[in-house]
Amino acid sequence: MPSSTIVPVILSGGSGTRLWPMSRPERPKQFLALTAAQTMLQLTAARATGEAFAAPIVVANTAHADQVATQLAEAGCAAQTIVLEPMARNTAPAIALAAVAAGSGNAPLLVMPSDHVIADVPAFHAAIRRALPLVEDGWLVTFGITPDAPETGYGYIQVGEPLAEGVHRVARFVEKPPFEAAQAMVAAGDHAWNGGIFLFRADAYLAALAEFAPAMLDAAKRAMAGADRDGICVRPEAAAFGGSPSNSIDYAVMERADRVAVVPVAMGWSDVGSWDALHALSETDAKGNATDGEVVMLDTHGCLVRSDRARVAMVGVSNLIVVASGDDILILPRGRSQDVKRLLDAMKG
């Protein structure tokens, strides 16, 4: 693939609240087996293995150090470094820590969220190959997901002029749009979903931070210079990192830099951002039910039911989401799973 080995950077700081009650702060969704026998983190690491790839750098919450190390070792994808953020500062500072951990040089970094699904890994690898020549020339590349519906929960990327076969300049980034705007963009055929997956050289990213977010770069460098190191675990110095502005890579860098490209790709991607999304990904029986755990159903249709302990019995219902985990049970109609966050807020209040 490249003249230098690609370093996977796995961002594992998310809390996964939209998949409560199974996903919780102490064990968020990236550590759960939701779509396969392996966990989301293990699947993410596995899609960036082989001769073209180095061992991954994982940026994670300090409370999850043992889970990250154990799960990756079990999957045969042991990390080279686990950078443990002392506090969350969004994706741009997290990637800065990883770029410094990778040596700040010309190594290509493949930045991936830890909790997404990519069903067609060969298509993903082909997209990486298309991007690499520009990456090695200093471009910042994002992967645009070919949209199959006017989703309002995703940002969009307008695909601009071609730069190489299958690679285009980014014309603009679009925030999460209202439905009518999303419908128009999908119909136009020149927009892709922003899946939050990136490929660029470490030094190119750090140079962009130096130009557009120097305080963030300074905080990351000072935090890594003062870090505590214990085997593969690196704990950046908390006071220095705490001084970093909190911002996403899209706002801090990608929307402001000039040499930004997009590779449109259809690869069976999902961010598994809700129980409805998981139902859409799951294998279902002849009645449209997707189940996991001890579940008994009679005359039941179109339901997603998961339980890690309790037996769930359902009769004569349709289109429900039922999730039982520990002492908590979630019940809601399909199509309303984005309200889980509101429900958690109400429970706190």
Provide a brief overview of the structure:
This protein has 2 domains: about 5-270, Spore Coat Polysaccharide Biosynthesis Protein SpsA, Chain A (Alpha-Beta Complex), CATH 3.90.550; about 275-349, no CATH class. Helices cover about 30% and strands about 30% of the residues.
Question: What can you tell me about this protein's structure?
Answer:
The protein is of the alpha/beta class. It has two domains: 7-270, Spore Coat Polysaccharide Biosynthesis Protein SpsA, Chain A (Alpha-Beta Complex), CATH 3.90.550; 275-348, no CATH class. Helices cover 30% and strands 28% of the residues. It has eleven helices and 19 strands. It has helices at 40-46, 65-74, 91-101, 121-136, 179-188, 202-212, 214-225, 238-242, 249-254, 275-281, 340-348, and strands at 7-12, 57-61, 81-85, 108-113, 117-118, 140-145, 156-164, 167-174, 191-201, 228-230, 233-235, 260-265, 269-270, 290-292, 295-298, 304-307, 312-315, 320-325, 328-333. The strands form four sheets. The chain has a five-stranded mixed β-barrel. The chain has a four-stranded mixed beta sheet with strand order 14-16-18-19, with helices on one face. Helix 6 crosses helix 7 (214-225). The longest helix is centred in the middle third of the chain and has 16 residues, at 121-136. The radius of gyration is 21 Å and the shape is globular. The mean pLDDT is 95.
